[in-house]
Amino acid sequence: MTRTTTPAQPARSRQAAAIRFLDRYLLYVYTAFAILYLMLPVAVMALFSVNDPPGKSNVIWHGFSLDAWLNPFGVPQLFDVVRTSVVVALVSTIAATMLGTLIALALVRYNFRGSAATNILIFLPMATPEIVLGASLLTLFVAIGNPPFFPTNFLTILIAHIMFNISYVVVTVRARLYGFDRHLEEAAMDLGANEWATFWKVTFPMILPGIMAAALLAFSLSIDDYVITSFTAGRTSTFPIFIWGSARIGVPVQVNVIGTAFFLIAVGFVALTTILQSRAARPLPPPTAGRERAATLDPAPTALTEAEA
Amino acid sequence: MHARQWLNRLTPFLLLAPGILWLLVFYAYPSVQMFISSFWAGTLETGFTVSLDNWTTYPQALERYGPQFGRSVVYGAAATTVCFLIAYPLAYTIAFRGGRYKSLLLFLVIAPFFTSFLLRTQSWKIILGDDGILFGPLKDLGLLGPDFRVLATPVAVVAGIAYNFLPFMTLPIYVSLEKIDGRLVEAAKDLFAGPWRPGGSIAGGVVGGLTAGGLAAAFEYDIVAFAILGAVGGVLIGAFFLSESFIQIVFPLSLPGVFAGSLLTFIPAMGDFVNAELLGNTQTRMIGNVIQSRFLDNNDYPTAAALSFMLMAGILVAVAVYARLLGTKELTSSG
């Protein structure tokens, strides 16, 4: 960093200065453009939610109108499909978060026969293209051939969503568990808490942010899923299936309104949890200090009081 | 005491059981069923019969849908390349120059993906439209001919795929760059690693030429012209921006992230049919489009199952080769 250029080489130093300038700022300029590029489709979606198209096709700008925002469900079926999507997302998120968190706990906390095979079984659904996940489930349901699995319906959508969400929950919660300081649990047990109390009073509160992140990820994956749902939905319609169906004849402006609202809610939710977490984290000592203290078997006072309570 | 030991041994399996059972019944078994279904004959009305004689479904499907398979591989590879070119500098900036804005920048990279996949693609349809907000003004100014179009061409399909799967490339590269110890780079500079004009130019030229030529081949453009353009661009970028410490230290150390990102982008890109349907035309249909229409429009389960099985088998081979060479840690930890 502290390379010196001798004044005897003015041309070289000017060139070096130019390169240093580019080196310093070009990457920032590039990043700004890259983020603009990433945001562009979102901005277009939001812009076309206040469009005023004369017909069904909403691909050309006609003029500003808030009609769709004032009447977001003013299209037949739209309310029903959004409700179905939200219900599927909620139920599959709760189920997958419970199942996935248990798997993550088992994988990180225990050495057992078959853990390598389990890892592979967790990884494979994420490495399988969605179309294959959906298609293979459909062949299963067709092979069964009887209700409640065939014809495919609301239940089969739920089965599929829980299935593809489990792996993402495991990966997210596991990342949080790896950084977990087990001395805190040992301290709680030394102080007489049994395993059950230790889990609920120490372990669970500490991995809760990871579980929340996993649930948020699962919810957004589920509410957005089109490909797998299209194979397992039968006559049931969800919001993405509604969009796909209307893409050929023209997507109603109201769809953009709901898409924009989902986006704003998601971004607002993430921003809120980030702010709350940084608030909550502030009074605690910095992580390194905490780790050193735990390493000398002198656990942080906050964890102690919680474990005792 | 014995009972307690048993319970301790049993605990991990009790924790695993519900989730793993779900995955075995609704992920692993359906894959087997899909293989069985590819040997079906019959229709939904008459019922299906399984017979090994129906193996002919495979060669028939390959013969009939060979072009779509080929397109999936070519478009998937092209989109993965474009993703890498966009994502690497982005991940590099966030990892090394992000400073206290690191999390904000990462959030900005992921935020667009809180919008529906279909609506994002629909937005690209609006943006890339023949007289849309991007090309309309350029055509009015006379910078583009009136017949110029991107929508309903392979370029639009690849651009859409690259956009939609960009985070799968960016995040693994970011993770591997972030892990690099900055002291290594400083040590290299202390050992007189400087700007690396000749080496950087050659590396940039070769990579640029091959990349541009390959992309031109994918889109059936003039390969030589694009290869030369790419090589010139690569030489310029290489000469000015590829320092010796980057080529010798940073890039090799980020390779696990690059490989993981490429695999995680290429797999969904190859199976995608949404971009080809919304942004392409009948000549850009990929294997995903065929599988979807065989299954859902034609109820031709045997052919669709055979096609899905071949797609899955190809991907499993790719994953196995990857895992053999580099291990699975990098893939699962960046998900």
Summarize the structure.
Chain A contains 13 helices and no strands. With 309 residues, chain A is mainly alpha-helical.
Description:
The complex is a heterodimer of chains A (309) and B (335). Chain A has helices at residues 10-47, 67-70, 78-109, 115-127, 130-144, 154-178, 183-190, 195-224, 227-232, 239-247, 253-281, 287-295, 301-308. With 309 residues, chain A is an all-alpha fold. Residues 1-8 and 284-309 of chain A have low confidence and may be disordered. With 335 residues, chain B is mainly α. Helix content of chain B is 76%, strand content 2%. Chain B has a two-stranded antiparallel ribbon. The two termini of chain B are 41 Å apart. The chains are: A mainly alpha (309), B mainly alpha (335). At the A-B interface, helix 1, helix 3, helix 4, helix 5 and helix 6 of A face helix 1, helix 2, helix 3, helix 4 and helix 11 of B.
Keywords for this entry:
heterodimer; A: 309 residues; mainly alpha; 13 helices; 0% strand; disordered N terminus; disordered C terminus; B: mainly alpha; MetI-like fold; two-stranded antiparallel sheet; 2% strand
